[in-house]
Structure formats: structure tokens, C-alpha cells
């Protein structure tokens, strides 16, 4: 189901390879464990009653002392994670505003309108750009989502991004390549970058949107650590990865989405465009070493303990607690806190694919949002905290009826 990773996927740091007939030396070249949540279910393994679960795997972050990349100690088989993928790009107002932000950023760099999206999900972003005059095409490994995109008339291929698919798409000469929240899901970064290089012309701009390790550490958002996110990227680590390739970091822009992300633009090293000043600015002020991870670990375990105590106390006092948003983040919280149906009656979610399933690793059912609207529990933990303002505005009646929101970040807060 998974394999162990003992070498840094950005710079290659790790113990020497053991060869036949050569004495095995004690090696100090080890990745350092900095965060450990034990054995956990796969965060998007929402399964219906009687359905087979994909399984459990260690959830442990290790730090590379050489380039500061943080990565999980194991890689789960990609087909288990992505073949039938239940994460669907949000169509919320927050997300549409975000698309507008990235469109503006892209258009400061290029007037090109041929756009390739890697990890095109159900095609929502492709369609959005298509409506704004872009000629769009996409690649995504999830067959269920590609089918949806094709039904909407979009040009997509169901495949993992590699040199084989790059060869096929090369004649389309993309001028903008967009990979949103894909890079940190990838195990073989070298293959990914080599394939990018194949389709990247001298004027192509490659835009990689990733959750930023700096935000993760600063805000203590430990619930974004799950098996799909195999790496927690720093600019220093990305620079180490690109060192021996034809690509270089051109510009880095911070974004608000998903609790803090980076929009990293790459160009070919032989481009005639000067790198933007943000590229070196980020590199010089990054703090994502062992000390920062130690503080993060203490804070995360403190928050887990605080939510456990709060919910146990509420239950003892006869209060009803539910979850709002069956995000992957909710799976991390629920399992880290060891919650089950004795703690949370249900988690509500708008995604049709998640309805009538159970929160992975538990017996907590995922229910339709209309249940929440008529039910009026005492507390709702907002597990889709990155959309909280939008949710709060939509669910005004809950607060009016005396319901209280529990927000897990930056510290647990009852509103
Ligand atoms: P999201 O934060 O996009 O991602 P992840 O799964 O990576 O943590 O997930 C948000 C979830 O919340 C998603 O399943 C949809 C759900 N949701 C609602 O149920 N109602 C809402 O109003 C919004 C915005 C999201």
C-alpha cells in the first residue's frame, strides 16, 4: 500500500546506498522526524457502508537538514489515492475570487492564451479560463473527474503527468502551464520537472500553486498534513530541486487561499526575462528548520488536546456537536482527536460524492447540508475553516438559533 522514503526528493540527501560486499557503515545522513501523528487513514477515503477502505499508513513528517524540505516518511500508492478521487475543486465565491487573482498575476507575465492545466480535476478552472478567452486543455489522473470534465465539453486526458504525456501535448505549445495544489502530491519530482521542461517554450510561464511550509509552521495548520501531501515545500528546497535543470524560479507571490499558499512562477533559464525580486526575497527570509518544526509540533498537540477536552466537556453537559465540511482536514482532526459518533453526530458537506459515506477511520456519517439547516446542534466545528466567512454568512440561522461555531485555527476559538 505504501513505501518508505529515506532520501530527500528535492536534493537527494540521505544514507549511502548499500551495495553487495561493501561494509555497511553507520550513517549520520538521516532525515529527521519532526512531526508524528502515528498510523492514520487516508484523508479522502470517504467510503459508503459496506465499502472497502484503502487502509491506514504512518503519518510522519521528516526534515532534510541540507535543503530544508519537509516530506512524509512514506509514499502511498498513487492509484489508491487518485484513481477515484473525491476531492472536487470548490465552486465557492472564495475560489472564484482566487481564480481572478491568479489570472491577473498570469497576465502581468504573458499575453499568451494557450493554457495547460496539470491536475485539472473536474475542469472547473479550465472552464473558468475558457470563458475568459483562453484556449484550455488539461491532464488529471482521476478518471471519474476527467469524465465529468469531458461531459462539460473540455479537452482533458486521464493520465499522470510524466514525459510520455508531455511528448503527446508538446505540439499544443502551451504558453501558460498551471499546476494548482499538485506539486506537493507528487512523489517523483525529477520526472515531473523533466516533463515540464519538455513542454516549456522560451516564453512559457509555469505557475505552481502550493501550500507554503512557512504558513503551515507559522499558523500551526497541522490538519493540512495528510498522505496526499507528500511534501511541504520551501523555496530553498525548490531551488535545490531545480539546480541541475533548465528551469528556474522567476517570481513568488503569497496567496490567501487554503490558509496560505504560494504562487510560484518558473521560466526557462535561457529566457530573456529578468527574475522578479520576490524570488530572492523569499529565499532569504525563510525560517523552516528544526526549531520551527519543534514549535509547530508542540502547538499542534496542544490544539488536539484542547479540542478533545472541549468536545468531551460539551458532550458530558448534554450538548450536541457536529462537524461542518468533510474536508481532508476534517479527517486529520477527527482521527488525531480519536473522535467517533459518540463525540460528533455527523459532518455535513455539500459535495455529492461524499454524501452517505463515513469520515475515514470512523463511524461518523457525512450528511447533506439540509440536515444541518433543520437540525440546530449546539456546536459546529468548522473543518472547512478556509471558507469560514462564506459559510458563516450562508448559515446565519445557525448562530441566530443559538448555535456556536468552533474554529480550529490559528487557536481553537468558539464564536
Ligand atoms: P477544502 O478546504 O477545499 O479541501 P481539503 O479537502 O483539501 O481540506 O474542502 C472543503 C470541504 O468543505 C469540501 O468537502 C466542501 C465543503 N464545503 C461545504 O460543505 N460547504 C461550503 O459552503 C464550502 C465552502 C465547502
* Total number of strands: 21
Alpha-carbon Rg, integer? 22 Å
Structural class: alpha/beta
What are the bound molecules? Answer: thymidine-5'-diphosphate
Give the termini distance in whole angstroms: 41 Å
- Which spans of ≥5 residues are poorly predicted at pLDDT below 50? none
- The proportion of strand residues reads 15-25%
Principal-axes geometry comes out as: globular
Share of helix among residues? 25-40%
The average pLDDT value, as a whole number, equals 94
Q: What is the spatial order of strands in the main beta sheet? A: 9-8-7-10-11-14-13
The main β sheet shows up as: 7 strands, mixed
Q: List the total number of helices.
A: 14
Show the helix and strand layout.
Elements lengths: L1 E3 L27 E10 L5 E2 L7 E8 L6 E3 L1 E3 L1 H5 L10 H17 L4 E5 L5 H7 L4 E6 L2 H9 L4 E3 L4 H7 L6 E5 L8 H11 L5 E7 L1 H7 L11 E2 L2 H8 L4 E9 L5 E8 L8 H8 L5 H27 L4 E4 L3 H9 L10 E2 L8 E2 L7 E2 L1 H7 L3 E4 L5 H7 L1 H5 L3 E4 L5 E2 L1
Parallel strand pairs: 7-8, 7-10, 8-9, 10-11, 15-16, 15-19, 16-18, 19-20
Antiparallel strand pairs: 1-6, 2-4, 3-17, 4-5, 5-12, 11-14, 13-14, 20-21
Helix pairs in contact: 5-6
The protein binds thymidine-5'-diphosphate.
